[in-house]
Specification:
With 433 residues, this protein is an alpha/beta fold. It has helices spanning 16-26, 38-42, 52-60, 77-83, 100-113, 128-138, 142-155, 167-175, 194-199, 211-224, 239-252, 282-295, 316-328, 344-356, 374-380, 390-409, 422-427, and strands spanning 4-9, 30-36, 67-71, 87-91, 116-120, 159-163, 177-180, 183-186, 189-192, 229-232, 256-260, 262-263, 278-279, 302-307, 333-336, 362-364, 384-387. The structure holds sulfopyruvate and magnesium ion (MG).
Length: 433
């Protein structure tokens, strides 16, 4: 009987190293490629550029591949137990780093199964991580960027978004990575916040900064990042204007707009009832959602309805009634907002809403109820979590401190320890030299 060989791979960007390992593996028997699904990859690496179906089509056509099967987990264990291969083949690069634990588990299972492990020298000089980095430098297209938010919602337990208000903060969201417990944590995308866009221009958050002005900052972010962007559309303005806003955002490759059900002079929600805030009627807000949905050109763009009932001191019933109407009007998701620290109102909403609409994404902005972790919010029913203002709030005290230190000392020596070294700031942005 023919021997079988198992090879796990993502196979997003094809390169000689992958063909080499396929050729080597097929020398030992029938090669089964365990192709990692998007959800298997999502918590460990960036989502592949190609969909599972596209990757499967490519791999299945490569000489030496006998069969392609889905690998639904980052760990090989389940598939090894299922397919019981005589061999597993892997590059020897997994001896170190984040794949070490995966390798240990493979050794245990293969020992139980009486199979063998073939480790071949890793093909130097070319690998998908450095190819990814090269592609990242080139950037992305509006079409790919728009689609990426829906793909992330589909495969990630929760989509993690951080506010960015200029190119530099966008770069931080794009590149910050934390390695913890054999996993890689990074932000999935950016929030273009009305609060931080206005504040960074010295203006109040009252829709005084117009779309054209906000697009200038957004363009800088688009220029140096590839991750999806969710745009804070405030109230969406007049229906007639919202139709243009939707198309403009779409053309720029923005994945979603969130509009809030307020009317009149909009004030920031975190003031709560300390300022006058008025909610739109259900009918008028539904009209706006419908206008947006009929205006968009692609199927990918999302219009998310933000419910301000708790901000305006209304109850759960009001929030749920609105949510039902907004979904019926075509909203692709809902955001429920609150400034209550306990999180109880938001949790109750999520629980009830998800009973009726398990497939409609829920967005949370846990600025006030910030004691809850992402996995707790996910348990409530959150699909997207937005850290809505933290980059600007972090930057301002740092700048204020430096300004004060210079004034106190009448020179900048003492402030230097709070500043990035000149050499580092000069080299911060690739391509500066
Ligand atoms: C923003 O970031 O501008 C928001 C979220 O709309 S909040 O400030 O919490 O209202
Ligand atoms: Mg806002």
């Amino acid at each position: 009987m023919d021997k079988t060989v198992y090879l796990g791979m993502t196979a997003d960007i094809m390169h000689p190293g992958l063909i080499n390992i396929i050729t080597e593996g097929s020398k030992y028997g029938k090669l089964i490629v365990g192709l990692l699904t998007d959800s298997a990859i999502a918590e460990h690496k960036r989502l592949p550029y190609l969909t599972y179906e596209q990757r499967e089509f490519i791999v299945r056509s490569i000489k030496g591949v006998h069969e392609v099967v889905p690998q639904n987990e980052w760990s090989y264990v389940d598939n090894l137990l299922k397919y019981k291969p005589d061999y597993i083949i892997h590059g020897d690069d997994w001896k170190e780093g984040s794949m070490k634990k995966v390798r240990e588990d493979v050794f245990k299972v293969m020992q139980e199964l009486g199979g063998q492990i073939i480790e071949i020298p890793y093909t130097k000089g070319i690998d998908s991580t450095s190819l990814y980095d090269d592609i990242k430098k080139i950037g992305t297209t509006p079409e790919i960027r728009i689609k990426s938010l829906r793909r992330l919602i589909d495969v990630k337990p929760v989509v993690r978004i951080l506010e960015a208000h200029n190119g530099l903060s966008g770069l931080i969201v794009e590149h910050t990575i934390v390695h913890k417990n054999d996993k890689i944590y990074e932000f999935d995308g950016m929030w273009s916040s009305s609060l931080t866009d206005s504040t960074s221009k010295g203006k109040p958050d009252i829709e005084a900064v117009d779309l054209t002005t906000r697009l200038q900052d957004l363009n800088n972010i688009l220029e140096c990042t590839t991750k999806p962007i969710i745009f804070d559309g405030d109230t969406g303005g007049k229906c007639e204007h919202f139709a243009f806003t939707v198309r403009t955002l779409e053309r720029h490759g923005i994945s979603a707009v969130i509009i809030e059900d307020k009317v009149g002079l909009k004030k920031n929600s975190l003031f709560g009832t300390a300022v006058e805030q008025h909610q739109a009627t259900i009918e008028e807000f539904c009209e706006k959602i419908k206008t947006g949905k009929t205006s968009q050109v692609t199927d990918d763009f999302m219009i998310i309805a933000r419910i301000e009932s708790f901000i305006c001191d209304k109850d759960l019933n009001d929030a749920l009634t609105r949510a039902r109407a907004y979904v019926k009007a075509g909203a692709d998701g809902v955001m429920i907002h609150s400034k209550n620290k306990s999180g109880e109102d938001v949790k109750a909403f999520c629980t009830e809403f998800k009973k009726e609409f398990s497939d409609i994404p829920v967005v949370l902005v846990p600025t006030s109820y910030n004691t809850f972790t992402e996995s707790e919010l996910k348990e409530w029913g959150a699909n997207i979590i937005i850290y809505a203002n933290h980059m600007l709030r972090a930057a301002y005290p740092a700048m204020q401190n430096v300004a004060g230190t210079i004034l106190e000392n009448q020179r900048s020596l003492e402030a230097d320890k709070f500043c990035m070294p000149i050499k580092e700031i000069l080299e911060l942005i690739p391509g500066t030299k």
